[in-house]
Design goal:
By secondary structure, the chain is of the alpha/beta class. It has 14 helices and 20 strands. It has 2 domains: about 325 residues, Adenylosuccinate Synthetase, subunit A, domain 3 (Adenylosuccinate Synthetase, Chain A, domain 3, Alpha-Beta Complex), CATH 3.90.170.10; about 100 residues, Adenylosuccinate Synthetase, subunit A, domain 2, CATH 1.10.300. The radius of gyration is 22 Å and the shape is globular. It starts with a strand and ends with a helix.
């Protein structure tokens, strides 16, 4: 059953796009399963650096079909801008398909996003203000506009006017916020629908056919599992399920087709926005990790919060998602550290915790308990096999592996395709094929 799920194991920004790009060399198809233009992947190849927000990372492979699944909330204007940018870098979009069942992000969603964050004042979620949460809210409330509607000029005009009238009343009465120009929005989105029409289809049969024929299909999740709306640090989470189960739902894949679940973890931890982050560093070491790891958001440019690797959160993710293997990225960022800390458990009110408490207030008060490891203090960016890695670097990887309960099959030692070092024969086959 040849589906491989690639998911983030932390709070997002783990380098999933790089891994997807590397493994796409042997894949028939890459399916984006969730999230919206709030997510971002940066992939560096010999052709340049590519920053993608909605387009699946497999688009850089000329033989790979790319699908935006029904679980994605799609901003048509952002997508068209992204496609134009890729064309400018010599990347065509003929292999892109968009599920007619995906929901559309509209200007009033961003307006609600801003208004709601302003109301929260001291307890803001820290969203990207791209309207993703309100779009998913409308989807659940059955007030959404789907891509199938967007490409039907008659439907989009009638349905969108009804929705804008409703949302304008809500913006005015609930938030005392400016209303939106319905005519301008309808025209913009009618034109966007016309431009996107050729990409839209019933993608679910395409995905099923590829799987039933034994073709390799990669399912690409946005964000990270610690931002899952059910199992993350609620309410400081995203509005979809970037989990293995959510990947199946958003991509339109039955669980029986899933062969591998690869979780991507950084060698340390980062987080963007508000919410509990037990291992966060507020000192020079945290700033050093931020600068060495170029920890600034692809979508917003915001500096990311940085911290030590959290094995408690990692175990939580591995267990819930049936992770079969791990790719650890940005190991090279730790090259300059004499001593590296790993959080093995928490203490709270005199109790040792080996799990993520559902109570977010309690999680924000836990004290991380660390085990210290010696650093390797050497440049590993030129490593291309496990034999090239210092013994202390391998010891660190194996120490983390033992704590989290899943094998680490690859490590990243830099941003380029060929800077994924395989630690197992199976991973080597997949990575080398795409390099």
């Amino acid at each position: 059953m040849p589906a491989t799920i690639i998911m983030g194991g932390q709070w997002g920004d783990e380098g999933k796009g790089k891994l997807t790009d590397a493994l796409a060399g042997r894949a028939k198809m890459v399916v984006r399963a969730n999230g919206g233009a709030n997510a971002g992947h940066t992939v560096q190849t010999e052709r340049g650096t590519f920053k993608m927000h909605l387009v699946p990372s497999g688009i850089l492979n000329p033989d790979c079909e790319c699908v935006i699944g029904a679980g994605v909330v799609l901003d048509p204007v952002s997508l068209l801008t992204e496609l134009d940018g890729l064309r400018g870098q010599g990347i065509g979009a003929d292999r892109l398909r968009i599920s007619a069942r995906a929901h559309v992000v509209l200007p009033y969603h961003a307006a609600f996003d801003r208004a709601q964050e302003d109301r929260l004042e001291g307890s803001k979620i820290g969203t990207t203000l791209r309207g993703i949460g309100p779009a998913y809210s409308d989807k659940a409330a059955r007030l959404g506009l789907r891509v199938a509607d967007l490409i039907d000029p008659g439907v989009v005009a009638t349905r969108l006017r009804q929705l804008i009238d409703l949302k304008n009343r809500q913006l005015e009465l609930l938030y005392d916020a400016p209303t939106l120009d319905a005519d301008a929005i309808i025209e913009t989105y009618r034109e966007a629908g016309e431009r996107l029409r050729t990409y839209v289809c019933e993608t679910e049969p395409l995905v099923y056919d590829a799987l039933s024929q034994g073709q390799q299909v990669l399912v690409e999740c946005a964000q990270g599992a610690m931002l899952d709306i059910d199992y993350g640090t609620y309410p400081f989470v995203t509005s979809s399920s970037p989990s293995a189960a959510g990947a199946c739902q958003g991509a339109g894949i039955a669980p029986r087709f899933v062969e591998r679940v690869i979780a991507v973890f950084k060698a340390y931890s980062t987080r963007v926005g508000s919410g509990p982050f037990p291992t966060e560093l507020h000192d020079e070491t945290g700033q050093l990790i931020r600068e060495r790891g170029r920890e600034y958001g692809t979508t917003t440019g915001r500096p990311r919060r940085t911290g030590w690797f959290d094995a408690v959160a990692a175990r939580h993710v591995v267990r819930l998602n049936g992770v079969t293997e791990i790719t650890m990225t940005l190991l090279d960022v730790l090259d300059a550290l004499e001593e590296i800390h790993v959080c093995t458990n928490y203490t709270s009110d005199g109790e040792t915790l080996d799990l993520i408490p559902a109570n977010t207030e309690r999680l924000s008060r836990v004290s991380p308990q660390y085990e210290r490891r010696s650093g390797w203090m050497s440049d590993i960016t030129r490593a291309r096999s496990s034999a090239d890695l210092p013994e202390r670097a391998l010891e660190y990887v194996r120490f983390v592996e033992g704590l989290v309960g899943a094998p680490i099959s690859m490590v990243g030692v830099g941003p380029a395709r060929d800077q994924l070092v395989s630690l197992s024969a199976d991973a080597a086959i997949n990575a080398v094929a795409a390099a």
